[in-house]
Amino acid sequence: MKIRIGVGAGGASASTEALGELVEGLDALGFDSLWLSEVLTGPVLDPMVGLAWAAASNPRLKIGTTALLPGRNVLRLAKQLASLDRLSGGRLLVTLVPGLTYPPEREAIGVEPRQRGAVIDDALPLLRRLWAGETVSHDGPAGRFHDVRLAPLPAQQPLEVWLGGNVPAALERCGRLSDGWLPSLCTPDEAAAGRIVIEEAAARAGRSISPEHFGMSVGYASEPIDPATARTMAARRPRSLELTPVGYPALRKTLEQFIAVGFSKFVVRPVAAPRSWRAELEALAAAVGDLQT
What we know:
By secondary structure, this protein is α/β, with parallel strands linked by helices. It has one domain (4-291): TIM Barrel, CATH 3.20.20.30. Helix content is 42%, strand content 18%. It has ten helices and ten strands. The strands form two sheets. It has an eight-stranded parallel sheet. Strands 5-6 form a two-stranded antiparallel sheet. Strand 5 and strand 6 (143-149) form a beta hairpin. Helix 1 runs parallel beside helix 10. The longest helix is centred in the middle third of the chain and has 19 residues, at 113-131. The chain is globular, with a radius of gyration of 18 Å. The model has no long low-confidence stretch (mean pLDDT 95).
């Protein structure tokens, strides 16, 4: 397995200086990729804009996003991602997500959580057809349009799409539709069990997912989490405190446990904005950088 570690920026990237320091440090210290998540109501950059800036700032670093699919115009999303992949020379990594379920993000997305799966089921095959250069007509949950052909096309053919989520419906959808799996907030044992479900669903659909395409997004804390942050994390996602490693040795142990059950791609995300991205990346590199192969 090729072990790769990217870094998720969160709200810590919301300035030119911070994002520049992060991009420079990731490249200099040998990390695989920069990841920006899409949270409409959070203090984070729009990932399409932020990643375009990052790609222009560095010609080598891979760029990744966990982008919302529900609530998006599927044609606009197809064009944005294709344009970003084209301009970056094929360095884009894409994971599509249904979005958070707590307010105010729940309402801002504009699609009820119980309806988001149907939107993904409808939209993802359309994205693939558009990126392949087909002329597409459609009338369904993802939108209504007639005889649309996308240009420019992505540099990567095909442009791969991973999915997240670890509830049963998300696992089945991942096997049926995606190129890989990048969940969060689960144990290594739960991840291994989820992988089996995904691979079985893929087999039923007459397809397969590369064994290299199973990863994990891991939030971590470099020092003890303050009480206010802990309360917020617990209120929004009840298992988040339990599944957040505290300290670099704990983060390394967590990654090693996932590697042991066959996971090889990681996005590590500090739950609190670091005082200095360079110092944070140096500490990360010292703790987990040698895991990359």
